[in-house]
Amino acid sequence: MQPSQYINLDKARALIVDDNPQSQDIIVGVLTSFGLRNVVRKAGGLEAQDELKYQSFDLVLANGALPDLDGYDLTRWLRREADEANRMTPVILLTSHTRRSLVEKARDCGANFIVTKPVSPAVMLERILWVAKGDRLFIECEAYVGPDRRWRNLGPPVEFPDGRRRDDQSIELGEAGGQNMSQDELDALIKPMRSIA
Amino acid sequence: MSEVKKSRMKPRLGQLMTQKGGMYVAEALKRADATLETLREPSLTGIDAYIAALDALLASGLDDAALIEALYARSGDIVSLSGAERSTAVQVAARSLCDLLDEADGLSPSALAGVKVHVASIKLLHRAPDNPALQAPILQGLASVLEKQRGEGKAQG
Fold first, then answer.
1. A125: which strand partners?
2. Which ipTM was obtained for this model?
3. How far is A10 from chain B (nearest CA, A)?
4. A109: which of A37, A46, A88, B112 is 20 to 30 A away, CA to CA?
5. Gap between the Cα atoms of A165 and A181, Å rounded
6. The whole model's pTM is what?
């Protein structure tokens, strides 16, 4: 992201889903500072689902934890069952803490990125620029629907019949350990890269 | 093996963003920082309210599962607003409380003591100036509390 880069969010339409009104104010404040004028706010996943059934959006920002339908299930529904107009809409999930029990769900729900709270304008704008670029394939199969989780878009390796390279990270999720995940760790989770080892 | 369909994502957002008008990234970030500054005091007041809510929950007599869930939600709320603080210490302490509650099977006396230490630490760190010498021992203490709880959790098995 270059400071001299030009952005125009004037005509973009965003859906913000957060049950904490002050947190909602912060997200909307940051987005409007970026020039985004058309923002629809919802406090729950079910309300957001209703909105997504009838309106199209260019960006969805949803909190992971929501009182009724959570952000992970909302994203999963959006990718699998929503209208064509919204099915590929970029989704950025926000989380103040990712529960161990939700790590797998967070990885596989179909979100483009997960951003940790408190919201940092630089991180938020960078992720918006990334999702706008649209350089990821959209994958649809029985087990997963959403943006390609291989960040580098290297494509399936032809030399390995099962589709995985020797140095790809394991498909199995290990038990989470240590402190709550940092932004870098969440990024690595949602866009697994080839192992350096 | 199930069929895999691949298509190119062409978000409308990308096309809109390159249209004439708009602003430089540097300007957008400057404006966002200014907006967050105007939201600083309301956010700090919000944290005051969530700390009071933590105290009220601890005195509420709710059953363990409901209490853990409610405390976890409020500590997450504190994390959400903690960008308004002058340092990241409140954020670290509130996340540590989320970890402790997320990993707790129930509220044993030692787990409850751990929660209370976290709440007391958040109160100390909230609205305090950025002073690493003051914050470090508090955060180190919370890390030890969490480690102890994890050890007890493993021992119980």
1. none
2. 0.91
3. 7
4. A37
5. 26
6. 0.84
